């Protein structure tokens, strides 16, 4: 056993303090990951089909087979020790899996014997409202167990999910929810009344008893996940309600608890009413105010049964002409047309982030480092909002960035004039004179990002039963990205950071928009990650 003095983290080969077993010819490097994914997907497909057919006994048998098989256990260990961003964050035991031997030993030890979960390490992170959000961090072994059972539970969740639930689901994203709301409200006099609802502390208040009675998985393991307790400032506290935010399986449990809301509204209120949900945020649209109020009353006992309730300060009933905010966008009908654009809070948050990056922490940076820091912020925000009516706001953000950079240059050279600063930090590219650039990099221009309508995922498609459909969507996105990379538009504007498309499928126009600053010729290596 080794200890990292700087991080106070114990690097251990397995759960507990056992020394690693001598491995024969098998090792972490010899695992066939393509075969592992193939075998795991095959079992998940069978589980989802059995649940759709209503064969609960077969579901249990297949879930047990998945959780004891070697390949799914290897996939679970790889997810928590190699793929996840939190792979360097230990739990209460301070154990991390860093070497191949430790990871392979963890695969062999995973789900062996009677499972006992260790307490969670509790930390608090700030929310936009200024309040603190509790985040519970399991140990590596508990994370791997959650990832393993999540692979067995998610196919069940997908088979029973609401058609228009888009949070924490494979192949679905915020843009799908945006398009669904647009579809339900865009026509003349179509569903003009809106219930913009938020569930108070959803992850923290879900009833444990309801989950134990209704979730299709090993009850003893589920109880260990839910009743593990948490450690904060040296004290051990019990968990009586809720699923830990930070746990791998928590989003799946929350989705299972909230599934059925859309069907309830359709059956008991009106078939014309539409419910769109992303995690614990939901929107109900209906033709009259009375139907929206009835929807709110119908859903209240549904939530109460699960230990949940509305957040009254965030739940309101509005007319579509007054507008409402959802997932960082503002939805509003103006003169009969549905306009979706970035919300004021989203724009304000971006400007605060840019101000901090340029005029606070960026004052001491050289120009290359500042561009390297700003490009991911600009590109990530633009890629999220590019499917809405955001062109004017994009121009406004660009203007704000230029003004902030002028202040940045003045602070660095208070005795120099604007002309000198312009010649030092700005270059002429094409017809533009104010391009913040160096010999290596240049700052991306948000207004050059083309507006592309998002193609909504088909609501009833199951990624386990019809993986080809979701594979074709990904191929379409990658093909469009490649085509734009070889044209004047450039790939970076479509794919966002690190080549991640976030599940977007964008509808290509007849003509590509001229984007000189997203041109592959000008975007040098390093402007985006």
Primary descriptors:
4-stranded antiparallel β-sheet, alpha+beta, 529 residues, 14% strand, 18 helices, 44% helix
Measured distance between first and last alpha carbons: 36 Å
Number of strands: 16
| SS strand fraction | 5-15%
Look at the helices and sheets and give the structural class.
alpha+beta
What would the principal axes of the Cα set say about the shape? globular
Summarize the structure.
The protein contains 18 helices and 16 strands. By secondary structure, it is of the alpha+beta class.
Structure description:
- The structure is a single chain.
- With 529 residues, the protein is an alpha+beta fold.
- The protein has 18 helices and 16 strands.
- The N terminus and C terminus are likely disordered.
Secondary-structure blueprint of this entry?
Elements: E1 2-4, E2 9-11, H1 33-53, H2 56-68, H3 70-83, E3 95-96, H4 100-109, E4 120-126, E5 132-137, H5 140-160, H6 174-185, E6 193-198, H7 202-205, H8 208-214, H9 219-226, E7 230-232, E8 235-237, H10 250-258, H11 261-268, E9 274-278, E10 281-286, H12 289-305, E11 316-319, E12 324-326, E13 329-334, E14 337-342, H13 344-360, H14 367-385, H15 391-412, H16 418-425, E15 426-429, E16 432-436, H17 467-486, H18 492-495
Parallel strand pairs: 2-3, 4-7
Antiparallel strand pairs: 1-2, 4-5, 6-10, 6-11, 7-8, 9-10, 12-13, 13-14, 15-16
Helix pairs in contact: 1-2, 1-3, 1-5, 2-5, 3-4, 3-5, 11-12, 13-14, 13-15
């Amino acid at each position: 056993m080794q200890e990292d003095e700087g991080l106070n983290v114990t690097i251990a080969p397995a759960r507990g303090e056992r020394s690693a077993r001598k491995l024969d010819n098998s090792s972490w490097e010899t695992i066939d990951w393509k075969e592992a994914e193939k075998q795991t997907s095959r079992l998940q497909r069978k589980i989802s089909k059995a649940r759709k057919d209503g064969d609960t006994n077969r579901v249990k048998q297949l879930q047990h087979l998945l959780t004891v098989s070697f390949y799914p256990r290897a996939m679970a260990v790889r997810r928590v020790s190699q793929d996840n961003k939190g792979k360097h964050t230990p739990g209460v035991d301070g154990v991390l899996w860093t070497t191949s031997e430790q990871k392979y030993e963890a695969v062999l030890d995973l789900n062996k014997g009677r499972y006992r979960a260790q307490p969670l390490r509790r930390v608090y992170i700030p929310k936009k409202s200024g309040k603190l959000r509790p985040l519970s961090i399991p140990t590596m072994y508990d994370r791997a167990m959650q990832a393993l059972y999540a692979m067995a539970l998610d196919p069940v969740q997908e088979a029973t999910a609401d058609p228009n639930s888009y949070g924490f689901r494979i192949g679905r994203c915020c843009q799908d929810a945006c398009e669904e709301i647009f579809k339900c409200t865009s026509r003349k006099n179509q569903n003009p009344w809106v219930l913009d609802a938020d569930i108070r502390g959803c992850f923290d208040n879900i009833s444990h008893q309801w989950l134990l009675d209704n979730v299709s998985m090993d009850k003893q393991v589920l109880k260990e996940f839910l009743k593990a307790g948490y450690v904060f400032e040296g004290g051990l506290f019990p968990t009586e309600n809720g699923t830990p935010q930070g746990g791998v399986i928590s989003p799946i449990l929350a989705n299972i608890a909230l599934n059925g809301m859309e069907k309830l509204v359709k059956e008991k209120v009106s078939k014309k009413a539409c419910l769109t949900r992303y995690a614990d945020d939901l929107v109900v649209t209906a033709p009259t105010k009375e139907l929206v109020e009835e929807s709110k009353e119908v859903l209240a006992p549904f939530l109460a049964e699960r230990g949940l309730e509305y957040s009254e300060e965030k739940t309101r009933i509005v007319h579509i002409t007054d507008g409402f905010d959802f997932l960082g966008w503002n939805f509003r009908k103006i003169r009969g047309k549905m306009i979706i654009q970035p919300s004021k809070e989203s724009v304000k948050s971006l400007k605060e982030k840019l101000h901090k990056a340029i005029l606070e922490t960026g004052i001491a940076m050289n120009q290359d480092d500042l561009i390297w820091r700003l490009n991911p912020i600009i590109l990530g925000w633009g890629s999220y909002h590019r499917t809405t009516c955001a062109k004017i706001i994009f121009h406004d953000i660009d203007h704000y960035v230029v003004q902030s950079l002028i202040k940045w240059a003045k602070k660095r050279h208070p005795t120099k004039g604007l002309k000198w600063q312009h010649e030092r930090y700005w270059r002429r590219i094409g017809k533009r004179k104010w391009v913040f650039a160096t010999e290596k990099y240049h700052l991306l221009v948000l207004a050059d990002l083309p507006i592309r309508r998002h193609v909504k995922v088909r609501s009833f498609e199951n990624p386990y039963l019809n993986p080809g459909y979701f594979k074709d969507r990904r191929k379409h996105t990658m093909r469009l990205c490649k085509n734009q990379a070889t044209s004047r538009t450039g790939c970076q504007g479509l794919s966002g950071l690190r080549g991640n498309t976030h599940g977007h499928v964008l509808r290509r126009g007849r003509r590509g928009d001229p984007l000189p600053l997203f041109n592959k010729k000008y975007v040098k290596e390093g402007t985006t990650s």
